[in-house]
Amino acid sequence: MTSKRTLALAATMAGAVLLSACNPTLRTHGYRYSDGEVPEFTVGEDTQATVLQRLGNPSTRGTFETDTWYYISATREYLAYLRPETRDRRIIALTFDDSGTLAGIEEYGIEDGRIVAFVDRETPTRGRELTILEQLLGNVGRLPSEQFGGEQNLPGGAGGPRQDGSR
Q1: Which pLDDT does position 103 carry in this prediction?
Q2: What does the pLDDT look like over 91-103, one tens digit per residue?
Q3: Where is the signal peptide (predicted)?
Q4: Residue 79 in contact with residue 22, Cβ under 8 Å?
Q5: Which residue did the predictor score with more confidence, 124 or 149?
Q6: 158 or 72: which carries more pLDDT confidence?
Q7: Residue 147 burial class via C-beta count within 10 angstroms: exposed 0-12, middle 13-18, buried 19 and up
Q8: How far is Cα 35 from Cα 33, in angstroms, rounded to an integer?
């Protein structure tokens, strides 16, 4: 009776360990907003200095338009060995005019994102692909036999002087 009880307890413990390993882990990256907080800015009044004071440095700036600042936050769910999945994303784009005054605010969510299909083609190279065996044994028999015989060449190849003094 005790061995059945011990076996049942061990099975229960093993099940609990396995189930706890499957609990998702949520991680937040980027600028983190407090619950319910929406950063409020006034177009035409706020400047780059006031935005920096309230939000800090932006996550990134526009590549071609350096007067656009992006504050990006994302929540990803990690589940055991599976690929992480983005659960929430929020991007606030602040555009400034030439004088550094806020000119526009745009907010984007995960629903505004697009799936980008990467091309998984490989760039072709000249020649042919060698097998592992061809790579290992490829140079066997290609060395000139005179290097192993009586004629000794100096470094520098065929154009260099010979040891016997002839050219």
Answers
A1: 92
A2: 888 999 999 899 9
A3: 1-21
A4: yes
A5: 124
A6: 72
A7: exposed
A8: 6
pLDDT in tens, 107-130: 888 888 776 666 667 776 677 777
C-beta of residue 39 within 8 angstroms of C-beta of residue 55 = yes
For residue 32, give the amino acid letter: R
Q: What's the distance, CA 85 to chain centroid?
A: 15
State the Cα–Cα distance between residues 164 and 152, nearest whole angstrom.
Answer: 9
Q: What DSSP line would sit under 48-62, residue for residue?
A: HHHHHHHH-S-SEE-
- Spacing of C-alpha 154 from chain mean position: 50
Report the alpha-carbon distance of residue 88 to residue 108 in Å, rounded: 11
Domain extent listing, the chain = 45-110
